[in-house]
Amino acid sequence: MAKVEHNACLRENGGRGSRVRRGGAGDGSTRKTTQIPEEEEHDEEGTGVARRASTVVADARRRPGRRGGDPLLVLAYMLVYVEIAWLILLVVRAARLVIDGWGIPSADSPKDGDAIAAATTPVMDAFAKAVGGYTELEASSLAVGLPEGLMGNSEVGHLNIGAGRVVWQDVVRIDQSVRKDEFAQNPVVHETLTAAKNGTGRLHLCGLVSHGGVHSKQEHLYALLRAAKAVGVPHVYVHFFGDGRDTDPKSGAAYLKELLATMQEIGTGEIATLVGRYYAMDRDKRWDRTELALKGMVLGEGEASEDPLKTVEERYQKGENDEFLKPIVVGGQERRIQDNDNVFFFNYRSDRARQIVQLLGDVDRSPKPDFPYPKNITLVTMTQYKLGYPFRIAFQPQHMGNVLAEWLGKQGVPQVHVAETEKYAHVTFFFNGGVEKAFPLETRDESQDLVPSNKSVATYDLAPEMSAAGVAAQVAKRVNEDDDQDDHHHKFPFVMCNLAPPDMVGHTGVYDAAVVGCTATDKAIGTIYEACKQAGYVLFVTADHGNAEEMKFPDGKPKTSHTTNKVPLIMANAPRGWRLRRDVPGVLGDVAPTVLAAMGLPQPEEMTGQSLLEKE
């Protein structure tokens, strides 16, 4: 059977197609797919599958019985032959480029702070003017699963882009349960409080107390206090971790004052320990810091205080701030974490809570084996701090089934992801839905596709081009790479990549450097675009969040943070008659469905985003 080359299909797809390794509906329908065993794939002549099909048909004809074989059996095998031939199909090749920190300025964005507008960007300028190839997406707040009004970030952006749905962050899920008065009915929360009531009568609530919203929320602590009151836990002790990093360095006194008033209003709760996050939330394996916090929480070692608010204010006068508070111990031994107690950690962000629960919860005490840990405590965490930890979890992680990378593998589409060091985790771990390992047919060759970031500079304003040119060159190489077994077909029908300068240089606050970085980024996009045209790929360009378009506050001071502005979605080198919809509000979670529609592949039901692609 000769190699399939459907000219009509090629015209529709805007270029040569790529064979996939398993069947998929070329028209975007939800037709069930059939797996082709490895031994039945095409050989160089395109006859491997056909030869097997011809063999089974010939075998049917040789079967004894009716003259010429059993017609029904021959027909059945011929249908198999046709189905297998259908699996030798062509899909549209696609490249997806995420520009980190490339937003669209709002009406309120200071014009003299727009580093993108000041840069030389002929490629992106032309894309923005292309009829049908440009639309805008929401990349912050509830549109990406964050609390209302909160700016997006690289991790959340890539999660949504790769998942093809709004990925609700843990904080939003907890917020919603509190808002709907469902928090106290959470089975793990309720059972923990009941166990504390029926056990030692002591419940310890541990976590960061501030309105920073990065690691925890005071509203969640208040919800725990109200639930404990409703259950009737006799003694509730709060171990207060000072912030001062995501908040003003000396704002902890106000947060403590608010907490004391709320506990009085609810009618339960007492302060047991105050200690800065520098000690209680270390994540750099500085175990002496973690031990210092535990000495206060477990042994009562620290500055004794009957008035913690006054003590904190006195510490301020001595030059100490919230982050670096050494233990302040309130009350006697009854407020310490003791044998058989119940302990609830209410931080929802995991990374800075791992060390202290590792020791206290007896996961691995080898860093501090001689500490007199309390025995037989029950430790519970708000969210999953690490896979494999034995603790009960109040809010289990979301199931992220059939993200784009996984789904492409199931459809038999080989893929590769390219980025420089600073963003490689984003195009792999985060883009893949928080999964560390590669999915089937996903190539990870870090010797090629992880382009080294410039480590010779302390900050990227000193080298604002970063490694954008290197990333572009590697993407160009990958899109032009032929299949090892068939040089008429491309090795990677899907290529994912990231360009970092607008975000990483934007974070430095150095406007002129960001202009240079954006210029270099546009040049890199041009390199990728030319390669896509040459190889017949449809190029999709978007951003994970804004940054470089708004580098100044209205008062002229440098702005280094992300923005809540929209981001572009661009489709380039697409067939005639294709266009991106602008009549519906798009979000980052719509990008994956749009790419699947362009490639002619079905959209899994787990992807609740909508395709923004229209084909005439």
Automatic annotation (TrEMBL):
GO terms for molecular function: manganese ion binding; phosphoglycerate mutase activity. This is 2,3-bisphosphoglycerate-independent phosphoglycerate mutase. It comes from Niveomyces insectorum RCEF 264. Catalyzes the interconversion of 2-phosphoglycerate and 3-phosphoglycerate. It is an enzyme of class 5 (isomerase). Its cofactor is Mn(2+). Belongs to the BPG-independent phosphoglycerate mutase family. The keyword Hydrolase does not apply. The chain crosses the membrane at residues 72-92. Pathway: Carbohydrate degradation; glycolysis; pyruvate from D-glyceraldehyde 3-phosphate: step 3/5. One of its GO terms (cellular component) is cytoplasm. Its EC number is 5.4.2.12. It catalyses: (2R)-2-phosphoglycerate = (2R)-3-phosphoglycerate. InterPro entries: Alkaline_phosphatase_core_sf (IPR017850), BPG-indep_PGM_N (IPR011258), Metalloenzyme (IPR006124), PGAM_B_sf (IPR036646), Pgm_bpd_ind (IPR005995). Residues 1-62 are annotated as: Disordered. It comes from the Eukaryota. Signal peptide: none annotated. Residues 97-602 form the Metalloenzyme domain. It holds the Pfam family iPGM_N. NCBIfam families: pgm_bpd_ind (TIGR01307). GO terms for biological process: glucose catabolic process; glycolytic process.
